[in-house]
Amino acid sequence: AQSVAQPEDQVNVAEGNPLTVKCTYSVSGNPYLFWYVQYPNRGLQFLLKYITGDNLVKGSYGFEAEFNKSQTSFHLKKPSALVSDSALYFCAVREGLAGANNLFFGTGTRLTVIP
Amino acid sequence: AAGVIQSPRHLIKEKRETATLKCYPIPRHDTVYWYQQGPGQDPQFLISFYEKMQSDKGSIPDRFSAQQFSDYHSELNMSSLELGDSALYFCASSLSRYSNQPQHFGDGTRLSIL
């Protein structure tokens, strides 16, 4: 069974500082990992994905994430936070192509960037 | 770029009524997913369709049904509505069930049950 854990409900960071939003996962087989961002009253916007290849994945709006197989983690990072990055962030996992294709989401982390 | 279109954006119903939510996927996307997001919760997978056939089934109540039509749009039909059905309902689409491409989400339908 798949599962995703986002240990922090809330992350606060000062504008211009680096940010990290943590995610760990559990899945049988090879994981497909995703990060989505949700703004108020909006749908989830895709940020980046890890399927295979380089452990460091670059995505939209300057975000990147590092896949660590031994720690089963996929933390989201950004070198310099912007106030406009304040939103709800979801980590998600699905099995490889042979498994069910729906996403399992973490409980979300609310990021607040303080001016 | 074209996105996933959901209608209506907001819907208010009373208990025991029925509701139909519509989803129009991104052009050329043949796979559609439905998710339910309760207040302050993460999205929960309900059901998906690939090439007009049901693909996977999640925590969809028996009171709900869904289908995908020949033009790939999908409808979620909800009957005997309960207060607990109040939530944001998202539709997502992807290029193929067998693709590693991401799912793209619509802005959702906010369903309120009075």
Explain what this protein looks like in three dimensions.
The complex is a heterodimer of chains A (115) and B (114). Helix content of chain A is 0%, strand content 50%. Chain A contains no helices and 12 strands. Chain A is globular. The mean pLDDT of chain B is 93. The chains are: A mainly beta (115), B mainly beta (114).
Predict the CATH topology of chain B.
Immunoglobulin-like
Q: What class, by secondary structure content of chain B?
A: mainly beta
Reported for the largest beta sheet of chain B, the result is:
7 strands, mixed
Shape of chain B: globular
Portion in helices of chain B: under 10%
Query: What pattern of helices and strands is seen along the backbone of chain B?
Result: EEEEEEEEEEE
Largest interface: which pair? A-B, 22 and 28 residues
Helix count of chain A, per DSSP?
Answer: 0
- CATH homologous superfamily descriptor of chain A: Immunoglobulins
Binned strand content of chain A: over 45%
Mean pLDDT metric of chain B: 93
Mean pLDDT of chain A: 92
Write down the CATH topology of chain A.
Answer: Immunoglobulin-like
Oligomer: heterodimer
Give the name of the CATH architecture of chain A: Sandwich
Structural class of chain A: mainly beta
What is the CATH homology-level superfamily of chain B? Immunoglobulins
